[in-house]
Structures are given as structure tokens and as C-alpha cells.
Known about the structure:
Blueprint: E1 6-14, H1 20-30, E2 34-46, E3 49-55, H2 58-71, E4 76-79, H3 85-95, E5 102-104, H4 119-131, E6 134-135, H5 139-144, H6 147-152, E7 158-160, E8 169-175, E9 182-187, H7 197-210, H8 215-231
Helix pairs in contact: 1-7, 2-3, 3-4, 7-8
Amino acid sequence: MIPPPRILTIAGSDSSGGAGIQADIKTITMLGGYAMTAITAITAQNTLGVSAVEVLSPDLVVAQIEACASDIGINAVKIGMLGSPEIAHAVADLLESANVPVVFDPVMIATSGAALADAATIAAFERLMKLATLTTPNVPELLALGGDTGIAARGIAYLAKGGDADGPEVEDRLVIPGEDQRIWRGMRVQTRHTHGTGCTLASAIATLLGQGLPLVDAVEGARRFVRAALIAAPGFGSGHGPLGHQAVR
């Protein structure tokens, strides 16, 4: 039997199971990967918002990553919520020498609107964007990073996600330096159950890259997974509910 790709997700824990580490584990597993975790922060949250956050120490985050890498091994990495600039720099220190695909979701604001990164943490994102195979900002995150002009000036590959934009159609743009941009458009799934879409997309891309797919194919496959999970959302919660990862085949 061919062993599954070993995917490490470095992110925060969502107690309600819709986003963060929990969404990543579900996504990686449903796509045939082996999920490992380095938890950066513990949050108390549900479909209505984040009520408490406790950030872990950089040393503990590093210890989790090293424990996975030294024994099981890693084929791809997904980075989500980091929690502090110290954690961001510690993760960058470790990954600069890693020869595996890295997908960086620059988490700044939760679907509910809660801020998940301060200015110093966002500034530390620069190192992670440089080493990442792909950075996946949503509309407000792209604006915070200087828009298309600002992020393109960094010379990095990025996926500009359009799910937060208005309109009946969603447009995602993959920009790879030196290549024509790729654009995907599709009718918006009309649902309020969108909690964890960014986490799910990034971890799906990382899993498919870990399986050896080219970047464009990995993005296409991940988009299909997210759309199917949106359609299969179980309807939990009275706010932005979770996706239906378990229903996607």
C-alpha cells in the first residue's frame, strides 16, 4: 500500500470544530492525507464569534513541529493562525530549511469578524510569505498586505480568494510570478455556513501538494472540495456555521 502524504498543520484550535486545526484535520483526512498538528493557540469560539484566546509559547509550538518532523516526517505544511510575532518567527526559522511545499493562510480576521492577528504578527508574516509555496489571502487580508500591487511586488505566488467579495459569482485568482494569472469563477453557494472556508481551502491545497500534484491542479482540487463541503454544510449553529467535510467523497 502507498502510505498517505504526511501533512502538518500549524494553526489555532477552534473549540466548535468549524475552523483552524479541527477543520484542517477533517480536510486532510477526507482527502487521504495523514494529519499532524502544531497548535499555536487555544480559542473558545462558536458560530457567533471568538470569546477567548490563549496563545501558547513559541517553544511549545516548535517542540510540536520538531516532534512530528523527527519521527513521522512531513510531506507538506499548512500554516494558519499563529497568535504572536514570536511564534511566526519561530515557525519561519524552522521552515526556511524545509524542502516541502508550504501553504500559508495569513489569518488576520475570523469569519465572525474577530481579530486574530495584531500588527506585529502581521509584520512577521513577511518571512512566511517569502518561504511559502503559496499564500492564500482573502479580500480583507489582501488589502491589509497592500492589495495586488503590494503583494505582487514581493514576488511570491498567491491565491487571491474572492469569497468575501459581494456579488453572485465568486472569483479566485492564482498569481504565479512570470506566468499568466489563472482565474476560476463560479456561482456563489448561498449559505451562511461558511465558517472555516479559508482553513479548509489551504489545508486541502497542502494535502494535494503533498500528494505530488502541481500547484494549479492542487488549487483546482481544493476549490472543488470546499464547494462540496459548503453544499453539504450540516446547518449547525445560529451564526456562521461549519462546513460538511464529512460528506465530501
